[in-house]
Amino acid sequence: MENINIQLYWEKFMDLIIKYGGKFVVAVIIWTVGLFAIKLIIKLVKKGMTRSNVEVTLRKFIISLLNFGLKILLFVTCATIVGIQMTAFITLIGAMGLAFGLAMQGSLANFAGGVLINLLKPYKIGDFIETGGIMGTVKEISIFNTILNTPDNKRIILPNSNVSNNNITNFSAEATRRVDLVFNVDYDTDIEKAKQIIADVIDKHQYTLKDPAPFIRLGNFAASSLDITVRVWGESAHYWDIHFDLMEQVKNAFDEAGIVIPFQQVDVNLKK
Q: Which end of the chain is less crowded, N or C, counting CB atoms within 10 A of the terminal residue's CB?
């Protein structure tokens, strides 16, 4: 009886070998080749992201995610070749993924925002930006947050989903910026003289550029003054130096030339 059972088991085993042996060998070959291919893909992706200066944290996360995803795909492929029914397994993975996505919805949105920021690079560390009404210098760009230091040295942590969905003004993106100023003078002022004084002050300033040439024109007839519009270019790093220096130096030059900067005033005429 025992010999019969052993022979029966042996026949079943041989049937399995005949039925699945070839498929198993093919699956092993595909698994081995697949692992080599995955290593090659990972290596190429690493090189590409390094050349593109992708942020280190994002780079590691993408590599880990890609490695895990490719190995899962390879496993499912090999199991299908052997003949294992993967429908229930794939359904379970999908359900788990859906539950995880719903639980981590906010974090995933921040992660997606971080991916976009690191790939599109609307700003980099050290840039001065404005987004969502907040201005500051970029100190750190992580997967989930962007950290800014405000001009008065407050640290603000912004979720990347908010940043990526808002308008971003990057004041450091270009090498040069235009400084716009308006100087008010009395209605009795010789406009050409006032314009020449402003031009001389601009010409002597160490940070103003000659090209593009400064723009100095009478811009508006205000209630109590003539408004002279001034537009001058300089390097972005010296924007505020130019702004405040010109305000002070033009005022001093006007005082020396006897040009009056009027107070706002209203003439009231009383009639009986």
A: C
| CATH 3.90.220.20 for the 123-170 domain, yes or no | no
Burial class (CB in 10 A: 0-12, 13-18, 19+), 151: exposed
Fold of 176-257: Alpha-Beta Plaits (3.30.70)
Rounded to two decimals, what is the model's pTM? 0.61
- Tell me which of 85 and 204 has the higher pLDDT: 204
Please tell me what DSSP assigns to residue 81.
Answer: H
pLDDT of residue 78: 79
The upper half-sphere exposure of residue 116, i.e. CA atoms within 13 Å in the direction of its Cβ, equals 14
93-102, 131-140, 251-260: range with lowest mean pLDDT: 93-102
Q: Do 66 and 42 contact (CB within 8 A), yes or no?
A: yes
Residue 269 tokens read as: 């005429």
What is the reported pLDDT for 14? 59
